[in-house]
Amino acid sequence: SGASVDQRFCFQEVFDSFKLCLSENKEVYLEHYVDGWRGLVKFLNCLGSVFGFIAKDAVNKVQVLVALMSGESGSQYATIQSMVKYELDNGLVDVTKRGSHPESGCRTLLRLHRALRWLELFLERLRTSGEDGKTSVMCAEAYNESLSQHHPWVIRKAAGVAFCVLPGRPAFFEVMNVGSTEQVVAMLGGALPLISEVYNITEELYAQHNLLDLP
Ligand code: 1Q0
After folding, report:
1. How far is Cα 6 from Cα 61, in angstroms, rounded to an integer?
2. How far is the centre of ligand 1, averaged over its atoms, from the C-alpha of 143 (Å)?
3. Distance of alpha carbon 39 from the chain centroid
4. Whether 8 contacts 177, CB under 8 Å
5. Topology classification of domain 2-203
6. Could you give the CA distance from residue 197 to residue 19 in angstroms, rounded to a whole number?
7. CA 43 / ligand 1 centre spacing (Å)
Protein backbone atom coordinates (compact mmCIF):
# COMPACT_ATOMS: atom_id res chain seq x y z
CA SER A 1 0.00 0.00 0.00
CA GLY A 2 0.96 3.63 -0.28
CA ALA A 3 1.23 3.96 3.49
CA SER A 4 3.80 1.19 3.80
CA VAL A 5 5.86 2.70 1.00
CA ASP A 6 5.91 6.00 2.90
CA GLN A 7 7.02 4.27 6.08
CA ARG A 8 9.84 2.49 4.34
CA PHE A 9 10.84 5.71 2.68
CA CYS A 10 10.94 7.68 5.90
CA PHE A 11 12.93 4.90 7.44
CA GLN A 12 15.66 4.90 4.89
CA GLU A 13 15.59 8.68 5.16
CA VAL A 14 16.58 8.56 8.81
CA PHE A 15 19.71 6.59 8.15
CA ASP A 16 20.58 8.57 5.05
CA SER A 17 20.36 11.73 7.15
CA PHE A 18 22.67 10.42 9.84
CA LYS A 19 25.05 9.28 7.12
CA LEU A 20 25.06 12.78 5.62
CA CYS A 21 25.62 14.37 9.06
CA LEU A 22 29.36 13.92 9.17
CA SER A 23 31.66 16.22 7.26
CA GLU A 24 35.09 15.11 6.10
CA ASN A 25 36.73 16.64 9.16
CA LYS A 26 34.11 15.12 11.48
CA GLU A 27 31.91 18.10 12.01
CA VAL A 28 28.19 17.47 12.30
CA TYR A 29 25.89 19.23 9.84
CA LEU A 30 22.90 20.58 11.71
CA GLU A 31 20.64 20.40 8.66
CA HIS A 32 21.01 16.64 8.33
CA TYR A 33 20.91 16.10 12.09
CA VAL A 34 17.55 17.85 12.17
CA ASP A 35 16.37 15.87 9.13
CA GLY A 36 17.25 12.65 10.95
CA TRP A 37 15.03 13.72 13.81
CA ARG A 38 12.22 14.66 11.47
CA GLY A 39 12.29 11.13 10.11
CA LEU A 40 12.27 9.63 13.60
CA VAL A 41 9.27 11.72 14.52
CA LYS A 42 7.44 10.47 11.42
CA PHE A 43 8.15 6.93 12.53
CA LEU A 44 6.96 7.73 16.04
CA ASN A 45 3.71 9.10 14.63
CA CYS A 46 3.17 5.77 12.84
CA LEU A 47 3.17 4.04 16.23
CA GLY A 48 0.06 5.79 17.51
CA SER A 49 -1.27 8.67 19.56
CA VAL A 50 0.13 7.46 22.90
CA PHE A 51 3.45 8.73 21.62
CA GLY A 52 2.03 12.12 20.75
CA PHE A 53 3.48 13.92 23.76
CA ILE A 54 6.94 12.63 22.91
CA ALA A 55 6.63 13.51 19.24
CA LYS A 56 5.37 16.96 20.14
CA ASP A 57 8.40 17.74 22.27
CA ALA A 58 10.78 16.46 19.58
CA VAL A 59 8.98 18.60 16.98
CA ASN A 60 9.32 21.64 19.23
CA LYS A 61 13.04 21.09 19.54
CA VAL A 62 13.38 20.63 15.79
CA GLN A 63 11.44 23.85 15.19
CA VAL A 64 13.68 25.84 17.51
CA LEU A 65 16.75 24.66 15.61
CA VAL A 66 15.17 25.25 12.20
CA ALA A 67 14.27 28.81 13.22
CA LEU A 68 17.89 29.46 14.20
CA MET A 69 19.20 27.89 11.00
CA SER A 70 16.96 30.02 8.84
CA GLY A 71 17.32 33.19 10.92
CA GLU A 72 19.54 36.23 10.61
CA SER A 73 22.60 34.36 11.88
CA GLY A 74 21.73 31.17 10.04
CA SER A 75 25.20 30.79 8.54
CA GLN A 76 26.55 30.28 12.08
CA TYR A 77 24.35 27.23 12.43
CA ALA A 78 25.83 25.14 9.62
CA THR A 79 27.39 22.62 12.01
CA ILE A 80 27.03 21.79 15.69
CA GLN A 81 30.63 22.94 16.09
CA SER A 82 29.99 26.36 14.57
CA MET A 83 26.75 26.71 16.56
CA VAL A 84 28.52 26.06 19.86
CA LYS A 85 31.29 28.50 19.02
CA TYR A 86 28.90 31.21 17.86
CA GLU A 87 26.50 30.97 20.78
CA LEU A 88 29.26 30.81 23.40
CA ASP A 89 31.31 33.64 21.87
CA ASN A 90 28.24 35.84 21.83
CA GLY A 91 26.84 35.01 25.24
CA LEU A 92 23.73 33.40 23.81
CA VAL A 93 23.62 30.42 26.19
CA ASP A 94 22.17 30.23 29.70
CA VAL A 95 24.99 28.27 31.28
CA THR A 96 23.98 27.76 34.91
CA LYS A 97 20.33 28.64 35.13
CA ARG A 98 17.58 29.59 32.76
CA GLY A 99 17.56 33.27 32.00
CA SER A 100 17.45 35.41 28.90
CA HIS A 101 18.28 32.56 26.49
CA PRO A 102 15.89 29.76 27.41
CA GLU A 103 15.90 28.34 23.89
CA SER A 104 19.50 28.47 22.78
CA GLY A 105 20.58 26.09 20.05
CA CYS A 106 23.04 24.51 22.48
CA ARG A 107 20.48 23.60 25.16
CA THR A 108 17.87 22.54 22.61
CA LEU A 109 20.24 20.26 20.75
CA LEU A 110 21.44 18.78 24.05
CA ARG A 111 17.93 17.36 24.62
CA LEU A 112 17.97 15.64 21.25
CA HIS A 113 21.53 14.52 21.81
CA ARG A 114 20.52 12.76 25.03
CA ALA A 115 17.63 11.13 23.20
CA LEU A 116 20.05 9.93 20.52
CA ARG A 117 21.84 7.90 23.19
CA TRP A 118 18.52 6.28 24.04
CA LEU A 119 18.02 5.48 20.35
CA GLU A 120 21.46 3.94 20.08
CA LEU A 121 20.87 1.69 23.10
CA PHE A 122 17.39 0.72 21.95
CA LEU A 123 18.41 -0.12 18.39
CA GLU A 124 21.36 -2.17 19.61
CA ARG A 125 18.98 -4.23 21.75
CA LEU A 126 16.55 -4.54 18.86
CA ARG A 127 19.33 -5.69 16.57
CA THR A 128 20.65 -8.40 18.89
CA SER A 129 17.35 -9.58 20.38
CA GLY A 130 15.74 -12.91 19.63
CA GLU A 131 12.46 -13.61 17.87
CA ASP A 132 10.50 -13.29 21.11
CA GLY A 133 12.29 -10.17 22.37
CA LYS A 134 9.97 -7.65 23.99
CA THR A 135 10.34 -4.18 22.48
CA SER A 136 8.70 -2.61 25.54
CA VAL A 137 11.40 -4.08 27.78
CA MET A 138 14.22 -3.13 25.40
CA CYS A 139 12.85 0.37 25.17
CA ALA A 140 12.45 0.75 28.93
CA GLU A 141 15.94 -0.60 29.63
CA ALA A 142 17.50 1.74 27.08
CA TYR A 143 15.55 4.63 28.57
CA ASN A 144 16.52 3.80 32.15
CA GLU A 145 20.18 3.70 31.16
CA SER A 146 20.11 7.06 29.46
CA LEU A 147 17.39 9.66 29.03
CA SER A 148 15.46 8.90 32.21
CA GLN A 149 18.27 10.36 34.32
CA HIS A 150 17.38 13.76 32.89
CA HIS A 151 13.61 13.47 33.35
CA PRO A 152 11.42 14.21 36.35
CA TRP A 153 9.20 11.50 37.81
CA VAL A 154 6.05 12.49 35.97
CA ILE A 155 7.72 12.19 32.55
CA ARG A 156 9.35 8.88 33.47
CA LYS A 157 5.93 7.63 34.48
CA ALA A 158 4.28 8.76 31.22
CA ALA A 159 7.13 7.29 29.16
CA GLY A 160 6.69 3.97 30.98
CA VAL A 161 3.01 3.89 30.05
CA ALA A 162 3.82 4.61 26.40
CA PHE A 163 6.46 1.86 26.24
CA CYS A 164 3.86 -0.71 27.34
CA VAL A 165 1.86 -0.29 24.14
CA LEU A 166 4.80 -0.68 21.78
CA PRO A 167 4.11 -3.46 19.27
CA GLY A 168 6.06 -6.70 19.62
CA ARG A 169 9.30 -7.26 17.77
CA PRO A 170 7.77 -8.88 14.64
CA ALA A 171 5.11 -6.18 14.31
CA PHE A 172 7.70 -3.50 15.01
CA PHE A 173 9.92 -4.84 12.23
CA GLU A 174 6.90 -4.91 9.96
CA VAL A 175 6.15 -1.24 10.64
CA MET A 176 9.76 -0.53 9.69
CA ASN A 177 8.97 -2.31 6.43
CA VAL A 178 12.57 -2.81 5.44
CA GLY A 179 12.09 -6.43 4.47
CA SER A 180 12.87 -9.69 6.24
CA THR A 181 14.12 -9.80 9.83
CA GLU A 182 17.59 -10.48 8.45
CA GLN A 183 17.39 -7.35 6.32
CA VAL A 184 16.27 -5.24 9.27
CA VAL A 185 19.09 -6.61 11.40
CA ALA A 186 21.59 -5.90 8.62
CA MET A 187 20.29 -2.39 8.16
CA LEU A 188 20.53 -1.70 11.88
CA GLY A 189 24.08 -3.05 11.84
CA GLY A 190 24.95 -0.53 9.17
CA ALA A 191 23.17 2.39 10.78
CA LEU A 192 24.28 2.02 14.39
CA PRO A 193 27.97 2.88 13.91
CA LEU A 194 26.88 6.10 12.18
CA ILE A 195 24.51 7.11 14.95
CA SER A 196 27.19 6.18 17.47
CA GLU A 197 29.79 8.32 15.80
CA VAL A 198 27.51 11.35 15.58
CA TYR A 199 26.65 10.86 19.25
CA ASN A 200 30.28 10.52 20.36
CA ILE A 201 31.48 13.55 18.45
CA THR A 202 28.71 15.70 19.91
CA GLU A 203 29.28 14.33 23.41
CA GLU A 204 32.98 15.15 23.24
CA LEU A 205 32.33 18.65 21.93
CA TYR A 206 29.80 19.36 24.69
CA ALA A 207 32.14 17.92 27.34
CA GLN A 208 35.02 20.10 26.12
CA HIS A 209 32.91 23.20 26.53
CA ASN A 210 31.25 22.11 29.76
CA LEU A 211 27.80 22.08 28.19
CA LEU A 212 26.51 18.68 29.28
CA ASP A 213 24.30 20.08 32.05
CA LEU A 214 22.78 23.09 30.33
CA PRO A 215 19.51 24.06 32.03
C1 1Q0 B 1 9.75 3.80 20.08
C2 1Q0 B 1 9.31 4.46 21.31
C3 1Q0 B 1 9.77 5.84 21.43
C4 1Q0 B 1 10.07 6.17 22.82
C5 1Q0 B 1 10.88 7.43 22.96
C6 1Q0 B 1 11.68 7.40 24.21
C7 1Q0 B 1 11.88 8.73 24.77
C8 1Q0 B 1 10.89 9.06 25.84
C9 1Q0 B 1 10.98 10.49 26.16
C10 1Q0 B 1 9.75 11.02 26.78
C11 1Q0 B 1 9.84 12.48 27.11
C12 1Q0 B 1 9.16 13.41 26.15
C13 1Q0 B 1 8.42 14.51 26.86
C14 1Q0 B 1 9.18 15.79 27.00
C15 1Q0 B 1 10.27 15.84 27.74
C16 1Q0 B 1 11.05 17.11 27.89
O17 1Q0 B 1 10.81 17.64 29.17
C18 1Q0 B 1 12.52 16.80 27.69
C19 1Q0 B 1 13.42 17.92 28.16
O20 1Q0 B 1 13.19 19.07 27.42
P21 1Q0 B 1 13.02 20.46 28.21
O22 1Q0 B 1 12.85 21.50 27.14
O23 1Q0 B 1 11.80 20.31 29.09
O24 1Q0 B 1 14.27 20.65 29.03
N25 1Q0 B 1 12.72 16.51 26.31
C26 1Q0 B 1 13.51 15.49 25.90
O27 1Q0 B 1 14.11 14.80 26.68
C28 1Q0 B 1 13.59 15.23 24.42
C29 1Q0 B 1 12.93 13.94 24.13
C30 1Q0 B 1 12.88 13.68 22.67
C31 1Q0 B 1 12.46 12.28 22.43
C32 1Q0 B 1 12.37 12.02 20.99
C33 1Q0 B 1 12.14 10.58 20.73
C34 1Q0 B 1 11.98 10.36 19.30
C35 1Q0 B 1 11.80 8.94 19.08
C36 1Q0 B 1 11.67 8.44 17.93
C37 1Q0 B 1 11.25 7.05 17.79
C38 1Q0 B 1 12.18 6.31 17.06
C39 1Q0 B 1 11.82 4.90 17.01
C40 1Q0 B 1 13.01 4.24 16.54
C41 1Q0 B 1 12.76 3.01 15.88
C42 1Q0 B 1 13.76 2.87 14.88
C43 1Q0 B 1 13.84 1.49 14.47
C44 1Q0 B 1 14.97 1.32 13.58
Report:
1. 24
2. 9
3. 10
4. yes
5. Glycolipid transfer protein, GLTP (1.10.3520)
6. 10
7. 12
Whether 196 and 120 have beta carbons less than 8 Å apart is answered as yes
Q: Is 90 helix (H, G, I), strand (E, B) or coil?
A: coil
Has the ipTM of the complex gone over 0.90?
A: yes
Q: State the Cα–Cα distance between residues 160 and 102, nearest whole angstrom.
A: 28
Question: In ligand 1, which atom is closest to the CA atom of 41?
Answer: 36
* Residues of the chain predicted below pLDDT 70: 1-11
- The pLDDT of residue 10 is 56
Q: Closest Cα to atom 11, ligand 1: which residue?
A: 54
Per-residue pLDDT, 1: 41
- The answer to whether the beta carbons of residues 136 and 198 sit under 8 Å apart is no
Cα–Cα separations (whole angstroms), residue 121 to 61, 80, 141, 159, 166: 21, 22, 8, 16, 16
CA of 58 relative to ligand 1 center, distance in Å: 6
pLDDT tens by residue, 92-119: 999 999 999 999 999 999 999 999 999 9
Q: Is 43 in the pocket of ligand 1 (CB under 6 A)?
A: yes
Our CA angle for 64, 209, 108, nearest 5°, is 15
Q: Which amino acid is at 189?
A: G
